[in-house]
């Protein structure tokens, strides 16, 4: 005799099953969300969104509960209370992270003025200077609590540093060429589009990466930075970066293969598709990196 299906992550967060309802209540109580002005209903929706993203199709309440208990729940609440505009949350956030972020910025640029400019530019991103549908958008809303908030902030700061470097380099290059009287030719037409299934599978794999994973891949594959340099920017040893790079690149390739198989490709077709030079793909890699995804420039076989 078959029983009723176990609840998935959505049920875990909304409390459709008694044990998971109790867990959600327990997490809310110890998270400090009430003190930071984050309502329990909003907390439940947040857990549901994270569970849906990282536990697709999970029906085992024990595994679901284990996943939620593994989250950095207090840091998760702090980040999302800040994103929601809580003044109290911002007071706590600045007390805990202002000095750490400045120190991290100084470690990247080795100049006090530039370090403060870099840290300030990150604060603007975190607070949210743009609006969508009349609502302020904060980068902190992307934090999921799967790693430490400090580590996540370091990765976002490092990405902001890379973006700033790119902008400055591009502006200087354009200005120099203009002064030299260079006539800019029209852009070359886009290369022939690749299989739409490869585009979709790649986008899907990239969207699942964390901020730190995106930064490591972009810094290494797109910007040509050495492992030791990336390690200094993230505050970790280069051997740690090397291990993460190998793990993430392999994981992305595996995820793309699985995505292509789900979309009807045979194993032989997926191998053929992944042999395509990434520069010939109809994929805007840098756009992907700047929009909370990563690059497909690492679709290469392990050496």
Oligomer, anyone?
A: single chain
**Mean pLDDT, all residues:** 75
Strand order of the largest sheet: 1-2
Whole-number radius of gyration? 22 Å
Structural class, from secondary structure content? mainly alpha
- SSE series: HHHHHHHEEHHHHHHH
- Tally of strands: 2
Our count of helices gives 14
Helix share, percent: 55-70%
Distance between the termini: 52 Å
Beta percentage is: under 5%
Tell me, briefly, the overall form. globular
Largest sheet: 2 strands, antiparallel
- What ranges have pLDDT less than 50 throughout 5 or more consecutive residues? 1-10, 183-193, 277-287, 289-303
Description:
This protein has about 300 residues and is mainly alpha-helical. Helix content is about 65%, strand content about 0%. Strands 1-2 form a two-stranded antiparallel sheet. A hairpin with a 2-residue loop joins strand 1 and strand 2. Helix 6 packs across helix 8 and helix 10 (about 210-220) packs across helix 12 (about 240-260). It starts with 8 loop residues before the first helix and ends in a 13-residue tail after the last helix. Residues about 1-10, about 185-195, about 275-285 and about 290-303 have low confidence and may be disordered.
